[in-house]
Automatic annotation (TrEMBL):
Name of protein: Hydroxymethylglutaryl-CoA synthase
Keyword Cytoplasm: no
Keyword Transmembrane helix: no
CDD domains in UniProt: init_cond_enzymes
A Pfam cross-reference name: HMG_CoA_synt_C
Family statement: Belongs to the thiolase-like superfamily. HMG-CoA synthase family.
GO annotation (BP), single: acetyl-CoA metabolic process
GO MF assignments: hydroxymethylglutaryl-CoA synthase activity
Length: 452
């Protein structure tokens, strides 16, 4: 039985900071960001948007593109995120409530809703759990949503890799787009490469405020109580990424009895977690070298230089152009969307092949997922004959073109949550209306509405 992605939709904010504006303000050589890391724009949330509005808008777009699907057919709404806004009420529950504002109260009453969190790989976990469920219940359908706001400290090395967006997938049997069949290679190690610890402080340190009344973005003097931004070590996180993806790739080959094959050569396109545009191309050469040990003498004193030279070689660049570059187009213009990045890469790749009218039916796609903390999963999907019919009605490339640039001061005001008035008018989308601050038993409750 074939199970996988039947349809795919997305939501990205309508504003961005051009990367050259950031480079200038931070005194960074612009070419490092554009040519070295592949960055062009960072998508940013407007004042009325958050991870819930993005999730609900992506799911709503998915349902609008598939008017034949009724809410009662959706058995699961599984969300992957690492930007949770509540330690108890999941984004999936908020999203379900928002969809009911449009489809009617109680229309999703028998739908199971839950969040999955494991840094950037949470949406892959959510998708695989949904696939397992559909295999056991072939007449049902599930919606999987990846929603994240990648926000880093100002002037940190992560600042230029920020971004925001959500991807929604319809999972079913006989999918029109991608069928997943092979076993998944996995590699996990508990490390601290990138994480978001709770930083609730001792009550006695916080004058005049009850720590129970702490929610995102609220600061007391110099003490930040709960930050959206991670604690991370950039170069170490890269090393963890490389270690995990090579281990998971090896495991994938073992599980599928494909040790004698250079598996990646069978992949038409490679979809990797892209925490910034060029992370895939700057790491996948390690897998190529794993498959081609004769290319480098790893016992040589200059082994590191040989690896670096291979990563810049014409031969490797051909592979990048052919198999990885299509996934980078959207990433460079949206930025990191954590759990959604690998699926944004998939959408970018499919949009590219749709625009170039390339026949990719029956092609194999290689998925190389990563989540800090840390886990990688490697698996394969096959493009189905009706894949074009599952694509979003509006091209992601058009949405990127339409996004408006903002200036540096506006970016800073948004980052510090000092800006109160919206930059763009909401239209046909869910917005955050208000966060309750007065009624004691509802403090922190977030209220949303749909704007026509
Ligand atoms: C966070 C997640 O989502 C989970 C993960 O995947 S963890 C793995 C990734 N980690 C992160 O994204 C953490 C946040 N990001 C960071 O800390 C940093 O942005 C980073 C570690 C990703 C990059 O660090 P950095 O110090 O800014 O850049 P650096 O690694 O030196 O690379 C700069 C590149 O630009 C190139 N470059 C520099 N100046 C250049 C110029 N003038 N022209 C062209 N290229 C230039 C450099 O040569 C280098 O490329 P190569 O290594 O391929 O040659």
């Amino acid at each position: 039985m074939k199970v996988g992605i039947d349809s795919l939709a997305y939501f990205i904010p309508k504003i961005h900071l051009p990367i050259e504006t950031l480079a200038k303000a931070r005194n960074i050589e612009p070419l490092k960001l554009t040519k070295g890391l592949g960055l062009q724009k960072m998508a940013l949330l407007d004042t009325f948007q958050d991870v819930v509005t993005m999730a609900a808008n992506a799911a709503h777009n998915l349902l609008k593109d598939n008017p034949n699907i009724l809410p009662k057919e959706i058995a699961k709404i599984y969300v992957g995120t690492e930007s949770g806004i509540d330690n108890s009420k999941p984004i999936a529950s908020y999203t379900l409530g928002l969809l009911e504002q449009v489809y009617g109260q109680g229309t999703f009453r028998n739908c199971d809703a839950v969040d999955h969190t494991f840094a950037c790989i949470g949406a892959v976990d959510a998708m695989q759990n949904a696939i397992d469920f559909i295999k056991a219940n072939p007449t049902k359908k599930a919606i999987v949503i990846a929603t994240d706001y990648a926000k880093y400290d100002l002037a940190s090395t992560g600042e230029y890799t920020q971004g925001a967006g959500a991807i929604a997938l319809l999972i079913s049997t006989n999918p029109r787009m991608i069928a997943f069949s092979s076993q998944t290679g996995v590699a996990t190690e508990s490390v601290f490469d990138f994480f978001k610890p709770y930083r609730t402080l001792e009550k006695k340190l916080i004058t005049g405020k009850d720590t129970n009344q702490v929610w995102h973005g609220i600061e007391e003097g110099e003490i930040t109580l709960h930050k959206d931004q991670p604690v991370f070590e950039g170069q170490y996180s890269n090393q963890c990424y490389i270690n995990r993806i090579t281990e998971a790739y090896t495991h994938f080959k073992e599980l599928n009895n494909r040790q004698s094959e250079k598996v990646y050569q069978h992949w038409k396109a490679i979809l990797m977690h892209l925490p910034y545009c060029y992370q895939g191309r700057r790491t996948f050469h390690e897998i190529v070298l794993l498959e081609n040990p004769d290319l480098i003498d790893i016992t040589a004193e200059d082994a590191k230089d040989q690896i670096k030279a291979f990563a810049k070689s014409e031969k490797y660049m051909e592979l990048v152009k052919d198999k990885i570059a299509p996934s980078e187009i959207a990433s460079g213009n949206v930025g990191n969307i954590y759990t959604g990045s690998i699926f944004l890469g998939l959408l970018s790749t499919l949009t590219h092949f749709a625009e170039t009218s390339e026949n990719i039916e029956n092609s194999k796609l290689g998925f190389v997922a990563y989540g800090s903390g840390s886990k990688s999963k490697v698996f394969e999907g096959e493009v189905q004959s009706e894949w074009l019919q599952g694509m979003p009605s509006k091209s992601i490339f058009t949405a990127i073109e339409e996004s408006e640039a903002i200036d540096f001061d506006t970016y800073i005001a948004l980052h510090k949550k000092e800006r109160k008035s919206p930059l763009k008018q909401a239209c046909n989308e869910f917005i955050l209306d208000r966060i309750e601050q007065e009624i004691p038993h509802l403090i922190g409750a977030r209220y949303y509405k749909f704007i026509q």
